[in-house]
Amino acid sequence: NVFKEGLAKTRTAFVEKVEELILRRKKIDEEFYEELEEILIGADVGVMTVMELIDDLRAEVKKRKIEDAADLQPILSEKLVALLKGDNEAELKMASSGTTVILFVGVNGVGKTTTIGKLAHKFKSEGKSVLLAAGDTFRAGAIEQLEVWGSRVGVEVVKQQAGSDPAAVMFDAVQAAKQRGVDVLLCDTAGRLQNKSNLMDELNKIFRVIRREMPDAPHEVLMVLDATTGQNALSQAKLFGEKSGVTGLVLTKLDGTAKGGIVIAIRNELDLPVKLVGLGEKMEDLQQFDSEQFVHALFA
Ligand code: GDP
Q1: pLDDT (tens digit, 9 = 90+) per residue, 236-259?
Q2: Which of 45, 55, 133, 220 has the most C-beta neighbours closer than 10 Å?
Q3: What interhelical angle do 112-125 and 142-153 show, nearest 10?
């Protein structure tokens, strides 16, 4: 299971406590539910989601006439899988022909550049040709940092100088991708998340430039979130994610945190799929999200 190692901290903070609770209390009663609630909130599942989950569990326990706490664990994992699955696809949308264009947005430090580098590596190892666009012309060092990843992975970076118009960089990148018949174009953006209208303005301009050249692009707009920030990641996604053209989420640094429960809160409170998760700093440490495997990694 690809998630197992990366989720070790979350497993300790969450599942091991649930297991301990089940062994200790044995029976499902009010105190049991209260303690379970505390554990889930402690793992950053989020108050609203915890309440819903506990209500769901109560109903199921009643329906199936369960008294033994040990019988609750499979029901809990069942509920979590259903919740994480939701009704939208975790798979990345790819162009049916021509170049697939994926834009990345996210505040500084969340792991945007790293994710682009890892994804470039993943596509390349699948035999696809990849091009990177240094669309974050705003943050000092962003272009160089992307170039470091470019040379590490062995893919070219389309860039202009710092401070230039990101839409112009995108134009160059889309032209180059078309000319060379590139399979995947991964675009960094400054994605200014200081406020929503900045983000929308910048993205709209980039959308226009890309669509003029490739009418069905961008195929994905991924918002990158740092899982170690727990509830903050959820607020960021709520504030900027919906209605700004974002099509999916990437949750990074799940390996470094006990707050993996945030994935559950995000899935429950937002109508945006988690597409990818970052499970380490290395090139290989990026996985497509899979709800069943994720839950199994927690409970295995
Ligand atoms: P950006 O400012 O959003 O482009 O963020 P960076 O890509 O520069 O990442 C910021 C820091 O987070 C770097 O030190 C990365 O190595 C680290 N990082 C990114 N993704 C992951 C991850 O999945 N796990 C861990 N442990 N660290 C990560």
Answers
A1: 888 887 777 899 999 999 998 988
A2: 133
A3: 20
Neighbours of 30 (CB within 10 A): 7
Report which of 81, 2, 1, 6 is spatially closest to residue 260, judged by C-alpha positions.
6
Instruction: Report how far residue 40's alpha carbon sits from residue 28's, in angstroms, rounded to the nearest whole number.
Output: 16
Dist. CA 294–CA 300, nearest whole Å: 10
Q: Is the CB of 226 under 6 A from ligand 1?
A: no
- Residue 108 known to bind ligand: yes
ipTM exceeding the 0.95 mark: yes
Does any ligand 1 atom lie closer than 6 A to the CB of residue 255?
yes
Cβ contact 212:141 at 8 Å:
no
The whole-angstrom separation of Cα 256 and Cα 200 is 31
DSSP state of 132: E
User: At a CB cut-off of 8 Å and minimum separation 6, what does 106 contact?
Assistant: 112, 191, 193, 223, 224, 225, 250
Q: Is the CB of 20 under 6 A from ligand 1?
A: no
- For 22-69, how does the pLDDT look when each residue is reduced to its tens digit (9 = 90+)? 999 999 999 999 999 999 999 899 999 999 999 999 999 999 999 999
Asked whether 279 lines ligand 1 (CB < 6 A), one says: yes
pTM, rounded to two decimals: 0.93
